[in-house]
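User: For a benchmark we're assembling, each entry needs the component sequences followed by a predicted structure for the full assembly. Here are entry 17's components. Please fill in the structure.
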Amino acid sequence: MKNIFPFLDWISSYKKTDFVKDLLAGITVGIVLVPQGMAYAMIAGLPPVHGLYASLFPVLVYALLGTSRKIAVGPVAMDSLLVAVGLGTLAITGVENYIKMVVVLALMVGVIQFLLGVLRMGFLVNFLSKPVISGFTSAAAIIIVFSQMKHLLGISVVGSNRIYKTVINIFYKLGEINYVDFSIGLVGIALLLGFKKWAKNIPGILVIVVLGIVAVYFFQLETYGIKLVGNVPSGLPSFIMPTLNIEDVKQLAPIAIALALVGYLEAISIGKAIEDKTGEDTIKANQELIALGSSNIVGSFFQGYPVTASFSRSAISFDAGTKTNLSAVFSVILVVLTLLFLTPLFKFLPNAILASIIMVSVVKLIDIKYFKYLWSNRKDEFFVMLVTFLITLFIGITQGILIGVLCSLLLMVYRTSKPHFVEIGNIGNSDYYKNVIRFADEVVVRNDLLIVRFDSQLYFGNSAYFKKQLLKHIKAKGPALKGIILNAESINYIDATAADMLTKLIHDIRERELQFYIAGAIGPTRDIIFSTGIIKELQREFLFVKTKEAVDFFDDPNEISLLAAKVAYENSRMAKAKRNIN
Amino acid sequence: MKNIFPFLDWISSYKKTDFVKDLLAGITVGIVLVPQGMAYAMIAGLPPVHGLYASLFPVLVYALLGTSRKIAVGPVAMDSLLVAVGLGTLAITGVENYIKMVVVLALMVGVIQFLLGVLRMGFLVNFLSKPVISGFTSAAAIIIVFSQMKHLLGISVVGSNRIYKTVINIFYKLGEINYVDFSIGLVGIALLLGFKKWAKNIPGILVIVVLGIVAVYFFQLETYGIKLVGNVPSGLPSFIMPTLNIEDVKQLAPIAIALALVGYLEAISIGKAIEDKTGEDTIKANQELIALGSSNIVGSFFQGYPVTASFSRSAISFDAGTKTNLSAVFSVILVVLTLLFLTPLFKFLPNAILASIIMVSVVKLIDIKYFKYLWSNRKDEFFVMLVTFLITLFIGITQGILIGVLCSLLLMVYRTSKPHFVEIGNIGNSDYYKNVIRFADEVVVRNDLLIVRFDSQLYFGNSAYFKKQLLKHIKAKGPALKGIILNAESINYIDATAADMLTKLIHDIRERELQFYIAGAIGPTRDIIFSTGIIKELQREFLFVKTKEAVDFFDDPNEISLLAAKVAYENSRMAKAKRNIN
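Assistant: Structure for entry 17:
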C-alpha cells in the first residue's frame, strides 16, 4: 500500500510544526506558480490559462503517488518548449485544434511514463550522461530565450523551430521595436536579478507581476500599443475526455516519447539533487514514472499539458522549508483561488513581464562552466556535449537527445575497443607490479618474463586488439622470453568471442614453447575461464591469485600454497558441485 | 612502396621450390575456381560466364595489393547470395539490365571498401562478434541451400527473398520433380562427400563436372528434360565503363554497404585463420580494404561481380602448399584458357551438378555446434546468435547483420550497466581480499569496515547503480561502520558523469563521519582521480596501492611506507610536473 501511496509513509508521524512549514512553502510556491504557469503555457504556444489548469490535478496526483517529498510539479520551461517545437512541425490550424492536440499529447506522455514505470524501465534514465543533459539543456535554454525575444521587444515574429530563422526574423523586425514593451521587460529583468541578489526573501516574480498590472492599469500603457495577456477565462477546467485518433497518435508519438523521457529525467534529477542535500532516501525510479504518468493522464482530462518537476519552484519550496507533499496541496489551493477570483486582473499583465520571468529563469541553465571543465579535462566528452548542443540548437530537440545518447554510447564502446594494454613489472623490494613506463625508474624488467595487464572487459570489440597487442609485446621481448603472465585484475568479463580467441591464443603461445599464466582473475572471470575452453588449454595449475605468486611459480614450479591454490581455482561450477556433495 | 604493393616483400627472396608449390596450388585452385565461379554466378542470378569474368582481374589485382599471401579471392557463395537477395527486391527487367546493375554494385562495393581503407576504418570489423557471424552465416547457408533446391530437383520455382515462400513454392512443385536431374544431383553430392572423406587428394569438384559433361554428352541426357548450363560465350571480357546514374546508386547503397563489410569480414577472417596456422603476420586491415576495393573496382570494368576471399578455395590452396600470391596468377591463367578454349564443353554441364557443388560447400557453414555451445554456456549470447539467425533467415540478410551488431552492443552496454558489485574481506592469514559470499567459510568480515569491489568501468550508464549499491551496503552494515574501502582494481575508467557522482558521494559519506579509501586504482584511473574533483574531496592520503595497506591505515593511520605512498599517488600530471622540473 505504501508503495502505491508513498504519502502514507509520512502521514502517520506528521507534526504540527511540519504543517506550518508546509503551509508557508506551499503558499510561496503557489505565488510563483501562477505567473510561471501562464508564462510557460505561452512558451508552449497555448493560451496562458492552460498553464493554470496544468497546475491543479497533476500537482495533486503527484502529491498522492510521488516518492519525492520535496519536488514541485507543474508546467516547466523545457517541456513547454518541447511541446511548441514538436507541434510546430505539424500543420495545425486554429487554437482549438492546437489545444486538442496538446491535450492528446499530455495523455500520451502520461501513458508512456505509466507503462515505463509498470515495466520497470526507470533505469533507462541512466543512459542520459551528464554531458548530454548539459549540452541539451544549454541549447534548449538558448532556444527559449530567443523564442521570448518577440515578447520582450514587442514585435510580431513568425515562429520557427529553426533558431537561425528566428534570429533572422527578429533581425528584420528590429526597426519595429516597441520601446515601452522593451522597457517594461528590461525593468522586469533588472528587478528579478536585483531581488535575487540583494533581497532573496522577496518573491521577485510576484512583485513584478503586480507592478506590471498596476502600471498598465494606472498609466493606461495599452495605449502605447504594448501586448497584454488579455482576457483569461475565469473558473475551473471541466472534465473532458481527450479525442483520440490513430493519425494524431502516430504524428505525436516521437515527441511524446521524448517528452516522457525528458520529463522523467528532470523530475528524477531534481528529486535526487534535493535528496543529496537532505539525506532522505525515498525516491523510487519506477514509482516516480507511475506518479508522473498518472499526473499527466489525469491532467489531460482537465485541459492540462505535460508537466514535470520544476527546477526553480522546487528550489523555492526547499528554501521555504517544505517538509512533505502536503505543501503542494496549498499551492493548488492558491491556483484555484486565482482561477476563481483573480483572472480579471491578468487582463492587464504585459507579455513582456512574463517574457522577463522566463528569460531570467532559463538563462542560468546555459552551462558554460561545464563546457569549460570538459574542454580542459575530457576532450572526448566535450565533443559529445558539443554535438548534443549544436544538434539541439540547429536541428531539433529530440534529435539532439537521441544523437547525444548515441554518441556517448559509441564513445563508451570506442573506449573499450582499444583499452589500455601495458607491460607491468615488479617494483624492487615490494610485491607491487606496475606499468613499466609510468614507473620506469623503479620497475625491474625481466627479459625471460613478460607480465601484461589489460584494462577492460575482453569482448568481441577488443579481442582482436588484445591479441595484436600481446603478440607485439611478445615479439618485442625477443628470443630470451620463456613465459607470459596475464594480470587479469581489471578484465571484468570475457565474452564468447574473446574466450574463443584467448583459448586459441594460449594454444599458439604454448606451441611456441612459451609458458602462459593468468593472475588475479576475479570471481566472475574465473567462472568464465572454468566454463569455457580456456581452462582446458590453460590448465588450472597456471591460475594464480597474485602476480607475485605466478612469478614465483615461473621461477620455481613447486612453490604454491594450499590456500593460494584453493582461492585461485574457486569457481561457481566447483562451488555447486561441492554443495551437491554436502 | 612495400605498403602499397606488399608482394615486393617476398618477390626478392622468392625461391625455385616456392615456384613449384605455387604452380601446383594455383592449378588446383583454378580447377575448382572454374566450376565454382559459374555455380556462384548462378546463385547471384547471373549468366554463369560472369563468374569466370569475376575470376580474372579481381584475382590479379588482389595478388598485387593484398597483404595476405595465401587467401584465394574470387566469387563466393555468401556474396553471390547477397547480390541476388539485394537485387531481388528491386524491380529489374531483363538479363541485360540485371547485369548492368550488378556491375554498378561491384563498382560501389569496391569504392566503399577502398574509401574505408583510406579512412583507416578497418577496425570496424571488430564489431562483428562471433555469435553474430555464426548466426548470420548459418542462416545464409540455409537460404543458399534452398535457393539451389530447384536446380537439384529439376523444377522451375519463382525465386523469392523470403525463405518460407521459397519453401512453399518448392512444396507445391514437388509433383513435377525431374528424377534424372535429382539423381544427377544426388550422385554429385555423394561423390563430393565420398572424395572428401576417403580420397582427399582427388579434386572432387573437377571429377563430377567432367563426369556430368561426359554423361550428358554420351547418354544424351538432355532428351530427359534435364536443365543444362547451356551456351557459354567464348573469349575474354572486354573493357566497358559501368553506366552510373544517381537513382541506381541510391537504390543499391544499402546492399553495397552490406556487401563491402561482409566481403571484407570474410577476407580478413579467412586470412587471419590461415595466419594462425602458419605463424605469418602480414595482414594489415586497412591495406586489405584497399586491396579488396581495388579488386572490385577493376572487376567492375570487366563485367565481374563482387568478389572476396573464398573459404573453400583458400583451404584447398593452403592444403596444396601455396607459398605466395603468385599461385593466384596460375589460377587466372587456367580461367583464361577455359574462357578461350573450353567454354563449348560447358554447354553439356547439368545445373544439378553445380547445385550439388554449392550445397556441399555451404552446408558445413551451418554452425549447430556453436549454437549448442552458447546455449549451455552463454544464454545471453545464444540469444544474440538466435536473433541474428532468425532475422537473417526470415527478414533479410542486411537486417540480420545490423540487428545482430546492435544486439551485441546493447548486451555489452546492458552488462556494464549493472556490473558485479561485491563486498570483499580478508581471507585469514593472507593478504587476499575476496568476495565474502564466494569465500564465506574463509573470509573475516568486519563490522567497522566495509570493503567493496566494483567490476566495471564507472560511467554514466552505471554510476547511479554504483551509488545505490554502495549506499545499500553501508546501510546493511549498521551503526558500527567506521570506514569504507573501495577496491578499484577492476574500475578501468571513470567518465565525467561518474567522476561527478563519486566526488559528491565521497563528500556525503565523509559528512556521515565515515572514512573513505580507494585502493588499487590503476594508472589511467589514478590520472582521472587526480585530474577531477575526486582528489580534492578524497585527499591523496586516502589512496592506496593494496587493499591491505588501506586496511592497515584504517587501523593505524601512521603506517604507510614511502614507497607505498609514491606508487599510490603517481599520476600523469605529477609526472609531467616532475619532467618539467628536471
